[in-house]
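Archive entry: two folds, one per protein. Generate the first.
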Amino acid sequence: MKNPEKFTESFTKTVIRSIITTTIIAIILYWAHVFPTGDKSKLELFEMIWSIVFCIVFGGHWLELLFINYIKFALPKNILLLYVIRIAYWFLCAIPLFFTAEWVDNLFSHNAGHLGQWWIFGFFYIGIELLMHGIMQIRAKKSFYNGVY
């Protein structure tokens, strides 16, 4: 089935929004001391956090567009099944996002670091998506909560 409401946005707008979102999240994670400092300066630590978060925000945006613009229209129209598939899709999307973020983390580390287990991040990513879609719902935009958008 063809997508009658394909979501499009300029690349520049996507990058700007991703940079702003990443910066806000990175500041919160930096001040909450979520990442161990190791032997990094404050600037190096913030750069590492920002880069990891950017991988997740920017990459997650493109994976969401893939679902919204293509995958969802190839699925059955049963709303409950769509909810289950969407949550499973988020879990699977966490795999490439996690390994990209871990690769970026290793670029900033003098020794090979490890961000944790990908499957734990999968559940965390589902929570991130539910929160982001909750914000869209509050702003009266299309979201997971009003029709598996």
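Generate the second and append.
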Amino acid sequence: MDYFLTEEQIMVRDLARKIAQEKAKPVVAELDREEKFPSEIMKVLAEADLFGVYIEEKYGGMGGGIFELCLVTEELSRVCGGIAVTYAASALGTDPILLFGTEAQKKKYLPAIAAGKKLAAFGLTEPVAGSDAGAIETTARKEGDYYVLNGLKHFITNGGDAEIYTVIAMTDKTKGARGASAFIVEKGTPGFSFGKKEEKLGIRCSSTRELIFEECKIPKENILAKEGMGFIVTMKTFDMSRPGVAAQALGIAQGAFDLALEYTRTRQQFGKPICSNQGVKFMLADMATEIEAARGLVYGVARMIDSGNTKVSKESAMAKLYASDVAMRVSTEAVQLFGGYGYMRDYPVEKFMRDAKITQIYEGTNQIQREIIANNLIKESLANSKE
């Protein structure tokens, strides 16, 4: 379908596609097998100025938005979900600064992120606080001109490899979620260390580590917004970032479909290509239709955010929910179409199924997305009934 991309958006998409196909694709199997961080690919993306597509020009970016970020993420995901999330998770860590940072904070941190010189990461999840973001136990106590952080963050994408972290910690436990605050923490700060790199089912080249804070002292100027705003920072950040996860899922689905379509055209059974069988045709038709429906939703929500609309929680959750469910269905069907070969690691399609699963889990499980969608629908219905 024609989504009426501008010349600049087409350039961004095509550049990301070229890098994905020419630079990433040849090393995907090795990165997955060895669980190796894709530092060389990140350098290529930085040299192409793709880290700054969603950052304002005055901070060294290209002046685009979430839509351009989604275009890049989708193209990278068509080749490797792990490479894509390494790129997109830097945007997740940057979004709180874009949304709530002071001018001084933006000038200090955004240029290096836009240039790809430094990766960012977002620290919310803890061993006992996943979907329940209000249950975090990491604390930040005020001591003069500093805050002192203590606690543990869990399953943090880009953990250890990122240089800049936005971290949610409790400044007043008695207030529950309203006692959370957001902070910028730099790698190398005394008292800030990392746990081991997690071994995962999919997105294996992506770094996932614990963030450990032991009397970690940061300047008071590193707080985002003000004390007690941490939960709002988190929710507004996810509203912006969930289309990025949806774009990752969309790219994974497209990549798996591309492989399946090519395979069914060339694989012969009973003297003819298997794509000539009606059952296979119907599978391909359903897969392609769901992918296109997901793309329309993801692109629409991304443009909605870029237009300045701030009430996007429902739509953002819908995009993440639908695209990730499509990714899982399409990648599973792709493996099925490959038959026994699809189950073998010699063929790339099984990796797409492994990578797809996480998109239903991180940045809010799909069960949480359904809660968000339903709660917003009920709230809107009540408001309309009072008019």
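Annotation attached to the second fold: The first strand starts at residue 120 and ends at 123. The two ends are 38 Å apart (CA to CA).
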